[in-house]
């Protein structure tokens, strides 16, 4: 069964690698480089203002680490047909699940590595420990994450709901105690206790497990995990594995009613209706606007606020470009006598309105973040110029490339 899991794993990785080239494109790398660079710059400047022994810094680190321990889920790679075809192999599934568990521990380790490295300067300033304690903190967190994955694996067995709740409650207590000892007292002692508790959870949640698999729960959890991954990938490219959800959203009918019913507005109505009622585009738009607003709220420097806002306006517009091809294969749009350039005009109107609203939200947030009126006018003017450039400059260029 271990070989069977490795076969599935190769298929899964091959499928993910096919999508990764669309996710890690030039635009995504540019945005992440800019954001991480800006965050690192402000983080570095803030640390210079922190006095040694900063008490609240320890609590900040504790909260970040506890939240980081919830990143990464148990990867079973179970498929809907397994509850029929693999049912006779249930006794051999323990070796399959062991291989799945080993694989599930890899991704969280790298996440914890980067998060621990990011928080170490604050740890050093707050605790007075040296950077050499990084490895003890990392091992403590990894031991706690392994126990968390043991609890996740336990939940795919029958009648384990109450036991899982108790195990999770015990895990939270251990987590707070171990991280508290590591941060406030001795990192080495915290690492030793973390290793002991990981052995304890292994015996409680796996070695003593003698109940049957809950096939339906295992499949549902894996499908939910994959759905979250595909939702993220769907921000960058079409994903056949994810189905589009259309919602009525009657409350937004007044917006569609503002578009006059004429032949000149055919595509504008179609695009606006798709934008409002399609969960992927409307959800993407709202998430990026909120995320950009949150970033700008904590930025008090003029040029960085200008760069962040313009970058998010560009990113939002770029992610909405696939709307252009939504009705490409609808027969009625081919039969109806509509001029070809109407599609471009409709996209410019719709994306122009959406980006103007985004710029307005960013401008309001910037008014609170910046103190000087001169800085505010410069930033707001930059946002408006970015909207004009994208709608009347970049958008026609991209659509021309799509048509070619």
Automatic annotation (TrEMBL):
Top-level taxonomy: Bacteria, Bacillati, Bacillota, Bacilli, Lactobacillales
Pfam families: EcsB
TM annotation in the entry: 21-43, 55-75, 96-118, 130-147, 168-196, 254-272, 284-300, 306-324, 350-370, 376-395
Domain of life: Bacteria
Keywords: Membrane, Transmembrane, Transmembrane helix
Protein name: ABC transporter permease
């Amino acid at each position: 069964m271990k070989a069977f899991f490795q076969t599935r794993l190769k298929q899964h990785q091959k499928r993910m690698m096919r999508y990764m080239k669309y996710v890690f494109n030039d635009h995504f790398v540019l945005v992440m480089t800019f954001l991480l660079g800006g965050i690192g710059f402000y983080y570095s400047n803030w640390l210079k203002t922190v006095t040694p022994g900063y008490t609240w810094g320890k609590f900040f680190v504790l909260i970040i680490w506890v939240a980081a321990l919830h990143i990464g889920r148990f990867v079973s790679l179970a498929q809907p047909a397994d509850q029929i075809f693999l049912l006779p192999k249930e006794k051999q599934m323990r070796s399959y699940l062991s291989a799945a568990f080993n694989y599930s521990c890899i991704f969280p380790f790298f996440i914890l590595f980067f998060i621990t490295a990011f928080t170490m300067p604050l740890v050093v300033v707050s605790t007075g420990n040296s950077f050499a304690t990084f490895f003890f903190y990392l091992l403590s967190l990894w031991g706690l994450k392994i126990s968390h994955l043991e609890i996740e694996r336990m939940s795919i067995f029958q009648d384990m709901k109450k036991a899982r709740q108790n195990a999770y409650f015990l895990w939270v207590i251990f987590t707070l105690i171990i991280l508290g000892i590591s941060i406030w007292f001795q990192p080495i002692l915290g690492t030793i206790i973390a290793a002991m508790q990981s052995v304890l959870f292994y015996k409680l949640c796996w070695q003593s497990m003698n109940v049957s698999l809950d096939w339906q729960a295992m499949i549902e959890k894996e499908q939910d995990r994959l759905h979250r991954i595909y939702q993220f990938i769907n921000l960058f490219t079409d994903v056949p594995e994810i189905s589009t959800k259309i919602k009525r959203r009657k409350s937004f009918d007044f917006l569609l009613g503002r578009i006059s019913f004429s032949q000149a507005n055919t595509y504008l109505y179609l695009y606006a209706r798709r934008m409002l009622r399609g969960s992927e585009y409307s959800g993407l738009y709202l998430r990026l606007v909120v995320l950009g607003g949150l970033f700008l709220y904590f930025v008090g420097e003029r040029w960085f606020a200008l760069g962040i806002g313009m970058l998010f306006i560009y990113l939002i517009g770029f992610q909405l470009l696939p709307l252009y091809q939504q009705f490409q294969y609808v027969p009625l749009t081919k039969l109806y006598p509509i001029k070809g350039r109407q599609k471009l005009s409709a996209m410019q109107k719709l994306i122009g309105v959406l980006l103007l609203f985004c710029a307005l939200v960013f401008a309001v947030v910037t008014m609170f973040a910046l103190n000087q009126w001169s800085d505010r006018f410069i930033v707001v003017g930059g946002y408006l110029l970015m909207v004009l450039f994208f709608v009347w400059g970049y958008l026609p260029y991209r659509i021309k490339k799509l048509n070619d």
